[in-house]
Amino acid sequence: MITLDHVSKSYSTGAPALNDVSVHIETGEFVFIVGDSGSGKSTLIKLLLRELLPTSGTIEVNGVNVGKLKHRQIPKFRRNIGVVFQDFRLLKDRNVYENVAFAQRIVQVPGKQIKKNVPSVLSIVGLAGKYKARPKQLSGGEQQRVALARALVNNPPILLADEPTGNLDPKNSWEIMKLLEEINEKGTTVLVVTHNREIVNAMKKRVVTMNKGVIVSDQKEGSYIDEI
Amino acid sequence: MRFSTFIYTLKQGIANIFRNKWYSLASIATIGACLFMFGIFYSIVANFQYIVKEAQNGVAVTVFFDEGLSQERIAEIGSLIEARTEVDHVNFVSADEAWEGFKEEYLGEYADGFKDNPLKNSSNYEIYLRDVSMQSALVSYLESTEGIRLINKSEITAKTLTSINSLVGYVAIGIIIILLCVSVFLIANTVTIGISVRKEEINIMKYIGATDFFVRFPFVIEGILIGAFGSLVPLGIVYLIYSNVIGYVLNKFTVLSSILKFIPVNEIFHTLIPVSVCIGVGIGFIGSFTTVRKHIRV
Ligand SMILES: Nc1ncnc2c1ncn2[C@@H]1O[C@H](COP(=O)(O)OP(=O)(O)OP(=O)(O)O)[C@@H](O)[C@H]1O
Ligand SMILES: [Mg+2]
Fold first, then answer.
1. CA-CA 20 to 30 A from B286: which of A194, B79, B92, B269?
2. For residue A24, what is the DSSP state?
3. Residue in chain A lying closest to B2 (CA)
4. Mean pLDDT, to the nearest integer, of A29-58?
């Protein structure tokens, strides 16, 4: 599902953010990416979304060689990847319903279908009653659920989450992680970047640890590693 | 594209106008101001050209014949003149008619003292031209024509009218071009501000996989609508001003009404409405389309 083959990424300044990274993730896996601040986790996510191009090496996502994508093919490529960020990134001037519906409008789902799909995915994340609220009127946990609903409504085979619980309290963090696990159990490949030691240790999933742009550990049913 | 997608992006474009109320209002006002000046200017130029045209219709070349020239030759000259492309129409004035006209105009009851027609050599052709600028070509033709004694022409009027007309034309084009450039610049500015305000949203849309079209189209719709609104408001104002000013001038200066003929307001707006709306919408489209292209690299 996701393959990185000797991937390096250098920004114009400083040491490379990723240095000769190779990793393979199977369809249906649940993977945590952990590591110190600045170790290259977000860079990895951006490469998978084709927001950035690797300096060298090849990246394959969902059978697509990301480096070979033409500009006009990028939107279609991204529609197969759900994304969730630490800062939620909702459209502020639209309500919950419209935020989720937006993802469907982009892929031109017929209006009738949208009216069915949005409430159903909102009830999965437990927000069925708040579809009229604006992002400002919601708590952080609720906003992240909206973001999650938006990422899921098109049934993407892959879900990427960059510190989805970074701004949430422990209770909400757990609920979001449980939702991600449920989604994974329905067949979606899930990649979660996180600093949440407690959750990583409790969930017993595959844990990839990065340090200074290099993968330093890759454990099945692993745990959070501090310093190497 | 699905029809529902089209409707959705259309709605977003309309919503954009309200999300940026003040900027939208500012650019509607500036386009409005430009098109207002355009409307006033157009009305003035159109009326000026209309008045000049009317004046031209009064300008005629008159030819008199050699003494004792035969009726046949006179008729022949008449048909030669009529065949010229410069000529709109020709009017034959016989000696008797000329005398009648002269009597009526200058002599009144004293005319009875004359037995014979003192103007028996003054039968002539009044030649009305299509366009004053063609006068000199016709005159040189007439000069080379056998049987013509005298050509009366109004050199100064013809030249002045022609040059004033083209001067007004050039000035009009110049001012209109400046106004259009200013408007495009203003629209571009508004859309740029709109884009920078919504940079974050645009980024989010791109993450979710929105196409270039999906992100750009609402901005273009926004520009077009701003242009359309910006053209309707000044049209209304110009309409009011025009109809009132003309009524006022004709009432106040009744002398003028016999000399000056203004274009009726409906006739002006027959042209002004479609042209203004097209310019407004065109400015809106060009301004937003180019700006969006430049600023959103999706
Ligand atoms: N746009 C950029 N330009 C230059 N350098 C960058 C840019 N983005 C990231 N970097 C650098 O690349 C390295 C990796 O950054 P990255 O954001 O991937 O780290 P991270 O693992 O996500 O950290 P955190 O846990 O704090 O989010 C850092 O040294 C960072 O300073
Ligand atoms: Mg990061």
1. B269
2. E
3. A108
4. 95
Supply the pTM of this predicted model: 0.72
Q: What whole-number distance in Å separates Cα of residue B143 and Cα of residue B77?
A: 12
User: For chain A, which residues lie within 8 Å of any Cβ of chain B, measuring from their own Cβ?
Assistant: 49, 51, 72, 74-79, 81, 83, 89-93, 102-103, 105-108, 110-111, 150
- pLDDT, tens digit, 9 for 90 and up, residues B249-272: 878 776 666 666 788 888 889 999
By residue count, chain B amounts to 298
3-state secondary structure chain B: CCHHHHHHHHHHHHHHHHHCHHHHHHHHHHHHHHHHHHHHHHHHHHHHHHHHHHHHHHCEEEEEECCCCCHHHHHHHHHHHHHCCCEEEEEEECHHHHHHHHHHHHHHHHHHHCCCCCCCCCCEEEEEECCHHHHHHHHHHHHCCCCEEEEECCHHHHHHHHHHHHHHHHHHHHHHHHHHHHHHHHHHHHHHHHHHHCHHHHHHHHHHCCCHHHHHHHHHHHHHHHHHHHHHHHHHHHHHHHHHHHHHHHHHCHHHHHHCCCCCHHHHHHHHHHHHHHHHHHHHHHHHHHHHHHHCCC
CA-wise closest residue to B14 among B172, B205, B225, B277: B225
If interface means Cβ-Cβ distance under 8 Å, which residues of chain B face chain A? 1-2, 4-5, 8, 15, 19, 200-201, 203-212, 214, 298
8 A C-beta contact, residue A160 and residue A191 = yes
Output helix, strand, coil percentages for chain A, rounded to the nearest 5: 40, 25, 35
Chain-chain contact of A49 with B207 (C-beta, under 8 angstroms): yes
